[in-house]
Automatic annotation (TrEMBL):
Cellular component GO terms, alphabetical: cytoplasm; cytosol
Enzyme nomenclature, EC number: 2.5.1.18
Xref: PANTHER family: GLUTATHIONE S-TRANSFERASE (PTHR11260:SF742), GLUTATHIONE S-TRANSFERASE, GST, SUPERFAMILY, GST DOMAIN CONTAINING (PTHR11260)
Keyword Transferase: yes
Lineage: Eukaryota, Viridiplantae, Streptophyta, Embryophyta, Tracheophyta
CDD domains registered for this protein in UniProt: GST_C_Tau, GST_N_Tau
Organism in which the protein naturally occurs: Brassica napus (Rape)
Name of protein: Glutathione S-transferase
Length: 227
């Protein structure tokens, strides 16, 4: 592994998935060049199209002459390619498998619910989607309580793979809450996730790259031409 090769990350400041890669590189103390795609939904650079010709989306990690795509895949690659810094994935095979499972749950089930709320055509559909989102967040709350053992992060005392996976929810959830007027992260149903969110946002590997909820909402209003 040519660990001294040039490292470049193509991302977008408002992409919650780019935060996963940036935080992982920070945790591993990897020096890299960052290329921001400020309006990736409307305009994509030649470098992005060349580096990720299949999905054409951020983030993309370029390590030497190799391009690594998809955010969770990038985080796993970073953890394996650099021995510097703490391990991001758990060392025990069962714990690693569980972390990957819940990351998949987040990307498929919870993001699916978020998209359903945002894309609902009427109040009935929106209410059904909102109920499903709350149900999935309650499931994630239970998983957090079991895996964190009261120590703050999904993996315990230290931030890890599942925290980076879950961190992508914070921006989209704040946008959906602002647009719908409904609180999805509630003290009575998701107390652990609320405390975790504060701790996650404040972590030194996350804070420099995580937009505030207000910045996420402002970006979404501009994107959808909402006053």
């Amino acid at each position: 592994m040519a660990q001294n090769d040039t490292v470049k990350l193509i991302g977008s400041w408002a992409s919650p998935f780019s935060i996963r890669a940036r935080a992982a590189l920070h945790l591993k103390s990897v020096k890299y060049e960052y290329s921001d795609e400020p309006d990736v939904l409307r305009s994509k650079s030649e470098l992005l199209l060349k580096s990720n010709p299949i999905f054409k989306k951020v983030p993309v990690l370029i390590h030497g002459d190799v391009s690594i795509c998809e955010s969770l895949n990038i985080v796993q690659y970073i953890d394996e390619a650099w021995s510097s810094g703490p391990s991001i994935l758990p060392s025990h095979p069962v714990e690693r498998a569980n972390a990957r499972f819940w990351a998949l749950f987040i990307d498929e089930k919870i993001f699916g619910s978020l998209e359903a709320v945002g894309g609902a055509k009427d109040d009935e559909g929106r209410m059904a989607a909102a109920g499903k989102l709350m149900e999935n967040l309650a499931i994630l709350e239970e998983a957090f309580q079991k895996s964190s053992k009261g120590l703050g992060f999904f993996g315990g005392e230290n931030i890890g793979f599942l925290d980076l996976a879950c961190g992508t929810l914070l921006g989209p959830v704040s946008v959906i809450e602002a647009f719908s007027g409904v609180k999805f992260l509630r003290q009575e149903t998701t107390p652990g996730l609320i405390q975790w969110a504060e701790k996650f946002r404040a972590h030194e590997a996350v804070k420099p790259y995580m937009p505030t909820p207000e910045e996420f909402v402002a970006f979404a209003k501009k994107k959808f031409n909402v006053e």
